[in-house]
Amino acid sequence: MPSAESAGTPAVAVADVAHRYGDVVALGPLDLTVPPGEFLVLVGASGCGKSTLLRLIAGFERPTTGTVLTGGVPPIPGRGAGLVFQQPRLFPWKTVGGNIELALRYAGRPTDGADALLHRVGLQDVAKRRTWQISGGQQQRVAIARALAADRPLLLLDEPFAALDALTRERLQEDLRSVSTATGRTSIFVTHSVDEAVFLGSRVVVLSPRPGRIVLDLPIPLPRTGITPDDLRGLPEYAALRAEIGHAVRSEGASA
């Protein structure tokens, strides 16, 4: 991985960024710095610019004004970040293992690392199945493993669990939380869910309606290891953080 951490360079630096689509100002201006290893969650009402900000960080779009840097340099699509979308976007003619091997090959890494990635996301028992033969939750696990295969220092996730049922969503939240802790990778996660934001994030940023601006930037000082998900959600601090973020989302400044 790049040595941004050792050099003290922010994983992501967004400076005075605004973005337009024609006459519509979708985002900003805003400033945001993400240190290496942080799990940042962007939350806000639909249309507030969360996904736009993620695309700018991924390098899929350039800001109308301002600068975006990842690891100290302008982002290049597919080079600086692993990506997980709402739909898994897998290759249906390949097996689960074949999708991971292809991602490793594309990243210039040995394909024998596929087994370790499959174990990491709990898919070792379905490696030889086609992707259309597994559940939606399992498909999203493949997408996460594929993003990890790229071995990028930054992981960007755009509402990856939004289309899943509540039970599967909770299980994948737990899995992602464990993977994030184990890898120490910088992650930026987009969601509408306040509970998901508090459960996953080490920091939560709430955006206002269009044009999206930061109305709350809140660290989440909750334990990440040595506690069960149920016990975590039962903590008084968890309830207090959820209430504060929920109020910001619902308030006049952050509701649609």
Automatic annotation (TrEMBL):
Keywords: ATP-binding, Nucleotide-binding, Transport. Residues 12-234 form the ABC transporter domain. Pfam families: ABC_tran. The keyword ATP-binding applies. The keyword Phosphoprotein does not apply. Transmembrane segments: none annotated. PROSITE patterns: ABC_TRANSPORTER_1, ABC_TRANSPORTER_2. One of its GO terms (molecular function) is ATP binding. InterPro entries: AAA+_ATPase, ABC_transporter-like_ATP-bd, ABC_transporter-like_CS, ABC_transporter_ATP-bind, P-loop_NTPase. This is Taurine transport system ATP-binding protein.
